[in-house]
Write a structure and sequence with these properties.
single chain; 269 residues; alpha/beta; Rossmann fold; 9-stranded mixed sheet; 18% helix; globular; disordered C terminus
Length: 269
């Protein structure tokens, strides 16, 4: 299956005030949250960033809750370990009343800084007004020992869509099972919410052939017409590209980057 890159990478993001975009998964949610918030802010929208889970304070808001101008981070207070407590889902749903005219982006789960994770029942905590889900996976996990890259591997009371032991090497097939298998990432997104897959940590994964094949297989799932590719250069700046299934580009009205070949990959912003 072929795919085409679209420009700009964020063309699929909602631009109407009141929308809530939720980030779930592992391996790069906070950086992507900040990138989405920056796009909206640069477009002139008011933005509220928040979380429904315990989180490290993002660098943009390390000194507290309030951002500058139209960019605000809401949380439920500072915890003893220095992290921020998350808002209840219904409080996130009410943010459009407290901040009229704003768009909301929210992290709905944590992964203990691991590129992959297994879910407990009841996770993630999705606000009912979520209009788009972005599922994040850290592809740097592929090729590493499973128990070093998968949060909660081997623990009781969690979904195990992969079934590998801790000393196994984490492969592309395992990543796909974690994404699309029973109890995997997609199973933990509400059925009526559209999904975009975000693959983070491209700079940590040298296997580009495996990456292209994985992307094609992931896009074979009808819920995943769009895949984001996220990487950091030596300057530390997050760079994002978005690919669309080639047969759907015209249907969804996206502008194709004609300089990129179908099935290709670039790391520019």
């Amino acid at each position: 299956m072929n795919f085409r890159f679209v420009e700009p990478w964020h063309v699929f993001l909602p631009r109407q005030p009141g929308h809530v975009v939720g980030l779930s998964g592992s391996g790069g949610k906070t950086s992507l949250l900040e990138a989405i918030a920056a796009v909206w802010r640069d477009d002139g929208f008011g933005v509220v960033a928040t979380t429904t889970t315990r989180t490290e304070p993002p660098a943009s808001f390390a000194d507290g809750e309030a951002g500058s101008g139209t960019f605000t981070y809401r949380h439920a207070g500072l915890l003893p370990d220095g992290k921020w407590a998350g808002l209840p889902a219904d409080a996130v749903d009410a943010l459009d009343t407290e901040h009229p005219g704003c768009l909301v982006v929210v992290e709905v789960d944590g992964a203990a800084k691991k590129p992959c994770k297994y879910y407990r029942e009841g996770e993630p905590v999705w606000p009912s007004r979520t209009s788009l889900a972005i599922v994040v996976m850290g592809i740097g996990a592929v090729g590493e020992r499973a128990d070093t890259v998968v949060h909660r591997l081997g623990r009781d009371g969690v979904s195990d869509p992969v079934g590998v032991k801790g000393d196994a090497v984490w492969e592309w097939d395992h990543l796909l099972a974690l994404l699309t298998g029973a109890g995997g990432y997609l199973d933990h997104v509400p059925d009526d919410v559209p999904v975009v897959l975000a693959l983070a940590g491209l700079e940590q994964q040298p296997d580009s052939v495996g990456l292209f094949d994985f992307t094609a297989r992931a896009m074979g799932d009808p819920r995943l017409p769009l895949v984001m590719f996220c990487s950091r250069g030596e300057d530390g700046v997050l760079r994002v590209r978005t690919a669309c299934r080639e047969d759907l580009c015209e249907d969804v009205g996206l502008d194709v980057d004609e300089d990129e070949e179908a099935g290709g990959h670039g790391s520019g912003a």
